[in-house]
Amino acid sequence: MRVIIMGCGRVGEQLARLMSEDGHDVAVIDYNAAALARLGPDFKGRRIKGIGFDRAVLLAAGIEDADGFAAMSSSDNANVVAARIARTIFHVPRVVARLFEPERAEVYRRLGLVTISSTTWGAERIRELLTHSDLDPVLTFGHGEVCLLSIETPPHLVGKMARQLSVPGELSVIAITRQGQAFISVGGAEFHPGDILHLAVLATSMDRIKNFLDSSEGG
Questions:
Q1: Residue 3: which of 114, 118, 94 has the closest Cα?
Q2: Selecting from 3.40.718.10, 3.40.50.720, 3.30.70.670, 3.20.20.30, what CATH number does the domain 2-118 have?
């Protein structure tokens, strides 16, 4: 995958490293040469010094052949301008813009831009850790509306079936890991001692699900 990352701050730098380590063709744009230098000598991608929404700079980064574009600078306005140029002018298939002001997200969504607000995501994640530390989400979707949890089978659920734990629209058993091997769950799958259950849970139902999992009468 050919990816362009605009902005080599902490997030952009980390993203560049991760993408490069995964074997992707990465180009990083930043107007600050010192920021680009932080990538170090082992970074295999390209570094382009310049303004991330300047046409000549984008062309030098390979925007015409890019599969993905991530606007990760410290400016919401610069990120949105660059993301719109990548999407509407160069037709890059996958474009993501980082936002610091979450209230702008809806406006940009209407423009067809995928945005990530570290403020919103961070607040949602901290809320989850504070209020549901025993049900620590492995992953969240959207703005935290749906969570992916992994828990060891509670004693009172051993011998129960996946369909008995599922609650339509609120909780679904999506996979089970047993003795180190994972498999997709079906309704008739029986829970064994030591099984790790992977659950998709509606965040607004977390308290009720927690009580259900803790209940000696669960199922």
A1: 94
A2: 3.40.50.720
- Give me Rg for the CA atoms of the chain: 22
131-214 CATH pick, 3.30.70.1450, 3.30.70.3270, 2.40.50.140, 3.40.30.10: 3.30.70.1450
CA distance 42 to 44: 6
Taking only the tens of pLDDT, the chain with its 219 residues reads: 999 999 999 889 989 998 998 899 999 999 999 999 999 999 999 999 999 999 999 999 999 999 999 999 989 889 989 999 999 999 999 999 888 877 777 777 777 777 777 666 666 655 555 555 456 666 778 777 888 888 888 888 899 999 888 888 888 999 999 888 889 988 888 999 989 888 998 888 877 777 777 764 444
Query: How far is the C-alpha of 82 from the C-alpha of 171, rounded, in Å?
Result: 39
Q: What letters, b where the CB count within 10 A reaches 16 and e where it falls short, cover 68-93?
A: bbbbbbeebebbbbbbbbbbeebebe
Taking the C-alpha atoms of residue 176 and residue 184, their distance in angstroms, rounded to an integer, is 7
